[in-house]
Specification:
- This protein is an alpha+beta fold and 490 residues long.
- The chain is built from 10 helices and 22 strands.
- Strands 13, 16, 17, 18, 19, 20, 21 and 22 form an 8-stranded mixed beta sheet that branches.
- Helix 3 packs parallel to helix 4, helix 8 crosses helix 9 and helix 8 packs across helix 10.
- The N and C termini lie far apart (71 Å).
Length: 490
């Protein structure tokens, strides 16, 4: 006798209340195993892939793609069929309770890794699934041999690659003749490509509407991703576009047209960002200070490091130097690495600099942070920054990576903007905007010479940081960027 069970949308962390169904990885009739990825959702902070808590056959998809549902809503039904003699994997014990039945109260959730031991002898599962009282057991691994499917880890990596983008989050750049090599693209998972074409949900829908088999479409996107232009060209509905046009056409506004206007629903990351920025702007008294400086010595240092044997396999940019300068300047002005506790009416100084880097992605602004950045060497900081940018590009930034930030850097220079007045990331007392580095006439001694000039803009919470402290911090950061040798004094 088959037993149909419903998988309810869990809280994937940070007390989230709802999520949007981005794309299903399965369809009714498919066979799934425990921990197979079945759906990709977008929370208020990031894209998350959810594994199935059940093994069996997909009976029904209860929520359609593009719908936003509350935590605890059933999203998929899985029918558990009687096992045959040839079925792989151990049968569950008769008295073993289902892995997921309903979201547990927040207080009942125990910390720990999914499936690992938790305090009290329980087994930790995904937040919202509820703690299991059964003993944690390691399931036997299944190989990726033909006919048995690939492992869930391989599928997870491959499907994340499918959602990588070409959005550019580079650090302040030099002119073309002085520019550094761009960050490497995320490689495609060739083992999965043969089984599943890499394409974004809007592109899959377009192919379905046009009656195009994605497996027959040549991919031109980074990492073997099929783009909208590829589908249109294959269907004969559009001529091949230039790379810039293709990328722009790949992400049309998802809205409805009414009376010559397009109305775009705000949800997911963009909704969370809008709410957070309004709250920050009208809660914390913002003050912004500007400082324009000669960054020629930093530019020269970046060029030398690019040729250094210890930095040949990592992208070094002026942004890395600015990040290091921020970590060093915090030592003299700890107040900028703090936050205001409204309930307790206290200033809370953070001991570690969890350095946030604001990154613009197709789904909105995200601010993942580098944990304990002040304890890192320049090389370690460059590695962490490259990894952070790569994850943001691929849409793999997880909620935990955006929690606990203490100070933020926003790089507006990548867009050719000189400076701006950034709004504080909620829960932080300082944010530094890094403008474009460009050659301008500058007075050196008694002569006017062309120099690499940069503008920094510091916004801070005036409840936590007063004018003297903010000015000193900005001056310290500028002194190191002006002359990196100043770092020896910190």
């Amino acid at each position: 006798m088959s037993d149909t069970r419903q998988f309810k949308l869990p809280d994937v962390g940070e007390g989230l209340t709802e999520a949007e169904i981005i794309s299903w990885r399965v369809k009714p009739g498919d066979t799934v195993r425990v921990n197979d990825i079945v759906v990709q959702i977008e929370t208020a902070k990031s894209l998350v892939e959810l594994p199935s808590p059940y093994a069996g056959t997909v009976a029904d998809l209860l929520v359609g793609e593009g719908e936003t549902v509350a935590v605890g809503t059933p999203i998929i039904a899985v029918s558990s069929e009687p096992r045959t003699a040839g079925e792989v994997g151990p049968a569950p014990a008769a008295d073993e309770p289902p892995a997921v039945e309903s979201p547990a109260p927040e207080a009942a959730v125990e910390p720990g890794l999914i499936g690992g031991p938790a305090p009290g002898g329980r087994t930790s599962v995904l937040v919202g699934y509820g703690p299991r009282t059964t003993e944690a057991k390691r399931r036997p691994r299944r190989t990726g041999a033909p006919g048995t499917g690939t492992s869930s880890a391989t599928a997870h990596q491959s499907l994340q690659t499918a959602f990588s983008t070409d959005a550019d989050h580079r650090s302040p750049e030099l002119p073309v003749e002085d520019a550094e090599p761009a960050l490497p693209q995320v490689p495609a998972d060739t083992g999965m490509t043969a089984l599943r074409v890499l394409a974004k949900p809007p592109v899959r829908k377009l192919a379905k509407d046009l009656g195009v088999d994605l497996r027959t479409v040549p991919a031109s996107g980074a990492g073997g991703v099929v783009t909208r232009a590829d589908v249109q060209a294959h269907a004969g509905g559009a001529s091949a576009a230039s790379p810039g046009v293709a990328e722009a056409a790949e992400q049309p506004p998802a809205g409805r047209v009414l009376g010559g206007r397009t109305r775009i629903p705000v949800k997911g990351v963009r909704k969370h960002t809008a709410q957070a920025m309004v709250s920050s702007a009208f809660t914390a008294p913002h003050v912004t200070e500007w400082l324009t400086l000669d960054a020629t010595r930093t530019v020269r240092l970046v060029r030398r490091l690019a040729k250094h044997r210890d930095f040949r396999d990592v992208k070094v940019s002026p942004l890395v130097v600015v990040a290091k300068a921020v970590c060093l300047a915090v030592r003299r002005t700890a107040e900028v690495n703090a936050h205001w506790d409204e309930a307790a009416q206290e200033i809370v100084l953070e001991h570690d600099v969890n350095l946030g880097i604001a990154a613009a992605t197709p789904r909105g602004l995200v601010v993942p942070n580098i944990k304990a950045a002040d304890r890192m060497t320049l090389r370690e900081l460059a590695d962490a920054l490259a990894q952070l940018i790569d994850s943001a590009r691929a849409g793999r930034t997880q909620p935990a990576e955006m929690a606990g930030g203490s100070f933020t850097i926003t790089n507006v220079g990548v867009f050719g903007v000189d400076a701006g007045t950034p709004i504080l990331n909620p829960g932080e007392a300082g944010i530094l905007a890094v403008g474009a580095i460009s050659k301008r006439p500058w007075v050196v001694g008694r002569q006017v010479k062309p120099r690499w000039v940069l503008t920094l803009a510091l916004s801070f919470d005036h409840r936590v940081v007063d004018g003297e402290q903010g000015s000193r911090f900005l001056a310290d950061v500028a002194a190191i960027v002006r002359d990196p040798a100043e770092a020896l004094l910190h």
